[in-house]
Amino acid sequence: MSQVPRWLGRIGAELTELGERLDERRAEVERETQGEADTGVPRAAVVPAGVREAGRGRPAAADDEESTAPGAEDSEDSAPEQVPAPPQYAPAVAARPDPAAAVPWGVRVAAEAGWRLLVLAGTVWVLMRVISAVQLVVLAFVTALLVTALLQPTVARLRRHGVPRGLATALTAILGFVVMGLVGWFVVWQVMENIDNLSSQIQDGIDELRKWLLNSPFHVTDKQINEIAKNLREAVGANTDQITSAGLEGVTVIVEGLTGILLTMFSTLFLLYDGERIWEWSLKLVPAAARPGVAGAGPRAWRTLTAYVRGTVIVALIDAIFIGLGIYFLDVPMAVPLAVFIFLFAFIPLVGAVVSGALAVVVALVTQGVFAAVMVLAVVLAVQQIEGHILQPFILGRAVRVHPLAVVLSVAAGGMIAGIGGAVVAVPLVAVTNTVVGYLRSYAEETALRQAPPPPPDA
């Protein structure tokens, strides 16, 4: 019985020590949680002493028995130890962003558009070089297209009346070429017939112009007029070699012109006879995905070209008739050849009217005097105003109307690239291109609408 109080006292001491150990463990856990939040060291890095000793081969129960001895106190080894956190190394090189993400959006768009524009510019440059190398062939073919657009309605009308295609083509082509040849012959004949009379009238006109300048309010003296005439003679004498070379080049131009006329005639015959098959063969060269759009744009482009050529011929004929009548009633010599020149130059929009009108005014000035020149200028301006505001909108219509700025720029570009022929074909080319681009844009929009998924039905 004497051992019972001692045994009870030991049990109470062990219970007290166990409670203190639980409190210490609770505080240890709180410190570990706080340290992990501050240093980022995981809880697994903190290992209790008993677990560590157990890992070394020493049982944890022995430690508990030693620590439960009466009067024993906690030593430093009984406190938990912490494993030091691994060192934090700063990265040697900072992370670099994606180059595409580092470039601003506007710069990326400009770069994307820039290289595409460079590719287009290079393509256009190569195309222009190729066209310049075969300029005569290209101009002959384009001229044949214009002549075909003028004559094709006649072939279609003859075929509707039962005439075979070959015979209708031959009759139309022969009639068209004969008419154009007769017009050219008539102009040359009139010029040759009136050249002597015109020379004397020009000399008389120069004398009258000289007298008018001497008596005019401009105070021009006879000495100044003589100096101007002398300078002109010296300029002609100094440039005799250039004039001679220009004459020799004129022979080459005549040969090239005859070659171009023959190519135009043959191309026109084949286009009139077999134009539909040529168009079907051309469609086979287009990629299959773009073929439906091009097949729809072709007939519309041809209608635009036909309307342009018909309207231009009608407008040019009206200009030539009315201006020729005004010149004839003012007794200006070579009224008929001047009217033919006005008709031909009318195929060059804006610029042709100015050149032909200026030619008529100069002839009237040197042959009939200042008053006749002023009257001819008034007639030319009146007819051109009627043409620009009434005839062209009414005859040509809206389908082939081109802005005046586009007309001037296209005529200038065509003249710089291919001379007079380029100036003639520039405006119809722009009109046809405008029609084709507009149709392809509408076709693409309609195709996108057809391929778009249908809207969901209302619930």
Can you tag this structure with a few keywords?
459 residues; two-stranded antiparallel ribbon; 2 strands
Major pleated sheet: 2 strands, antiparallel
User: How many beta-strand runs?
Assistant: 2
User: Which structural class fits the helix and strand makeup?
Assistant: mainly alpha
Shape: elongated
- Spatial arrangement of strands, main beta sheet: 1-2
Low-confidence stretches: 43-79
Detail the topology: elements first, then pairings:
Layout: H1 3-39, E1 46-47, H2 49-56, H3 60-67, E2 81-82, H4 99-102, H5 105-133, H6 135-160, H7 165-215, H8 222-238, H9 240-283, H10 291-329, H11 335-345, H12 351-368, H13 370-395, H14 404-451
Antiparallel strand pairs: 1-2
Helix pairs in contact: 6-7, 6-9, 6-10, 6-14, 7-9, 7-11, 7-12, 10-11, 10-13, 10-14, 11-12, 12-13
Q: How would you explain this protein's 3D organization?
A:
Helix 11 runs antiparallel to helix 12. The protein is 80% helix and 1% strand. It has a two-stranded antiparallel sheet with strand order 1-2. The protein is an all-alpha fold and 459 residues long. It contains 14 helices and two strands, in the order αβααβααααααααααα.
